[in-house]
Design a protein that fits this description.
Distance between the termini: 32 Å
Shape: globular
Number of helices: 22
Strand content: 5-15%
Number of strands: 16
Length: about 575
């Protein structure tokens, strides 16, 4: 059945904690992921462009200015051992990893065609790829990309209000998957624990958890926290190729791999797909391509270089076990932390100097400052490029609301209303009595609860919050059964008709507690574990302690912190504790 197939897809993605594709599937089903309607541009005089030739000129000029760089760099490599040739197994593995259903590049080849290549004919690819690998030059067709402009907002009228996604040759993608696997270990080795973006096993939930728990511990110790949420202007499009190649060379990449990357970025061209065709091809002299398998890895190395150079010997930040933590990042979404306004200003001054040298620029309009303090009148007065940065009482970081009083209610209320809106979009389907109640309930858990529980591992739950979540669960059940409030049906009767107990709160408890076990056992959660277990300098103030993330789990399990952390090391024993939560 169609509904059950969709549920299986969502459940598979949730098991992998793939939040991006989970919510993409949700939008497909709810109708939010639609093919965009064409948006007319405005010229410099804010007049709508109706002439296709003028529109092409505007886009061509924009692309030229965006990716223009006068740095004519040349690659100088060091003496290293010759790179091993590409073997058949590497190509077979890359073919298995290629995703189907993707658009063809300028050469018109779809990924499904590449997957039809049988074992006997792979030897032709082996020979072709090795000839390219040894020569260090890519075919001209592989160097062409097509930019698809995706509007960042519904009423986009300027070129800068669009995100450019690259369509490139699927054969090039296959080739770059092999290069990616070869360079991955060396590129990933030096990325700091503060970076959670584009890294295996890590995601937005880990960055949100780290920041939330850190702020709670600082509050409990009476330590002020000054945060600057940095927004970069066109971060992926401002990477300087000469600096990127120098960074990769310093990491010890093989000469053949470096030569391929150099040739790709030195000779690439792109055109923009418009309603009436393609624009003129334009050289791309800077930036990493959004849509390329290598871009996340290369961008992480580039941004890591900025932070290492600017903050390498910095003593500013929030000290955990005596060592300063000055930033938490998810790709280019950066939160810079300090315990005083002066230290935060010093950190930002160092960052801006280094970023300017590497072509990155902070968007001062979207960058915000927040102060977490017992003194509600404390002002930061931070400036970047001589411009004052706005101080806010709340900020949406990685899709979740953070407030200066650390009240979790705003975020949870927002999530409930987003989940309610998702349910109402699908109400006709979910309240259809011709469908089995078990199937509809499974659909609710996959699609509605996925929206509700984004970032749930970082939530801190109060009694009022739990009551609100249980009320929302009953709201869903009543609408699935088409029970009106005038019918005066009790909650117990609703649950009897559903054949269900209240399970939403139990699900939240289990997910939060299970996440504690993951943090305690896995090495990749080094920073979240340090924040959770480490000591923050400061002194606790008088009065009762406020509710915290770890206190929730202590209350639910009946165990103290020491016993919890010790038990979490034993997967089997801790899984039993999680399963017994009610």
């Amino acid at each position: 059945m169609w509904m059950e197939e969709r549920c299986i897809e969502i459940e598979h993605l949730q098991d992998k904690h793939d939040l991006f594709n989970t919510h993409k599937k949700i939008k497909e089903v709810t109708g939010e992921l639609r093919k965009r309607s064409y948006t007319a541009l405005c010229n410099d005089d804010n007049k709508l462009i109706t002439n296709p030739i003028e529109e092409e000129e505007v886009w061509t000029k924009y692309i030229e200015n965006l990716f223009k760089d006068n740095d004519t760099f040349q690659l100088t490599t060091r003496e290293r051992e010759p790179s091993p040739p590409i073997i058949k197994d590497e190509i077979v593995r890359a073919l298995k990893e290629i995703k189907t259903g993707k658009a063809a590049g300028p050469d018109g080849i779809y990924p499904e065609i590449l997957k039809l290549i049988n074992t006997d004919n792979i030897v032709i690819l082996v020979e072709l790829f090795n000839n390219i690998y040894q020569a260090g030059e890519l075919p001209k067709d592989w160097l062409k990309s097509i930019f698809i402009p995706i509007p960042k907002k519904s009423n986009a009228r300027k070129c800068e209000q669009f995100r450019l996604i690259s369509l490139m040759s699927q054969t090039l993608k296959l080739y770059l998957k092999i290069i990616h696997r070869r360079i991955y270990r060396k590129c990933e080795a030096d990325v700091g624990v503060e970076q959670f973006g584009f890294r295996p096993g890590l995601g937005t939930r880990d960055a949100l958890f780290s920041l939330s728990v850190l702020l709670q511990k600082c509050r409990d110790q009476g330590k002020d926290v000054f945060i600057c949420f940095i927004d970069y202007a066109k971060a992926f499009d401002c990477v300087k190729h000469s600096e990127l190649m120098a960074i990769l060379d310093a990491k010890g990449l093989d000469n053949n791999d470096l030569q391929i990357l150099f040739y790709l970025y030195r000779h690439q061209v792109a055109s923009v797909r418009l309603e009436n065709g393609l624009t003129t091809e334009t050289p791309i002299n800077r930036g990493v391509r959004q849509g390329c398998v290598l871009s996340p890895l290369l961008f992480n190395d580039y941004s890591e270089s900025i932070f290492q150079k600017s903050l390498e010997h910095a003593n500013e930040g929030i000290k955990i076990n005596g060592k300063p933590l000055s930033n938490i990042r998810y790709a280019d979404d950066t939160a810079v932390l300090a315990d005083s306004a002066e230290d935060l200003q010093l950190l930002l001054n160092r960052l801006t100097r280094e970023e300017n040298d590497l072509g990155m620029k902070i968007n001062t309009t979207k960058t915000k400052v927040m102060v977490i303090s017992r003194n509600p009148n404390l002002q930061a007065n931070i400036t970047i490029y001589g411009k004052p940065i706005e101080q806010v009482a709340r900020f949406k970081y990685l899709g979740c609301w953070l407030t200066d009083n650390l009240d979790p209610d705003l975020e949870i209320r927002t999530r409930i209303e987003m989940a309610r809106a998702t349910f109402l979009k699908m109400k006709t389907l979910l309240a259809d009595r011709s469908l089995r109640i078990t199937t509809r309930l499974r659909f609710v858990k996959c699609y509605v609860y996925s929206v509700l529980l984004y970032g749930v591992e970082a939530w801190t739950m109060k009694v009022s919050t739990m009551n609100r979540l249980e009320a929302f669960e009953m709201w869903i059940y009543r609408r699935m059964l088409r029970i009106s409030w005038v019918d005066h049906v009790t909650n117990d009767e609703v649950l009897r008709r559903m054949g269900e107990d209240r399970k939403l709160l139990t699900l939240i408890k289990r997910r939060k507690t299970a996440y504690l076990g993951h943090i305690s056992r896995h090495q990749r959660y080094e920073l979240p574990k340090l924040i959770m277990e480490g000591k923050i300098e400061g002194r606790r103030g008088p009065g009762r302690r406020q509710c915290s993330w770890l206190k929730n789990i202590r209350d639910w399990t009946g165990l103290d912190s020491h016993t919890l952390l010790r038990t979490a090391q034993d997967r089997t024993q801790f899984a039993e504790i999680v399963a017994n939560l009610r």
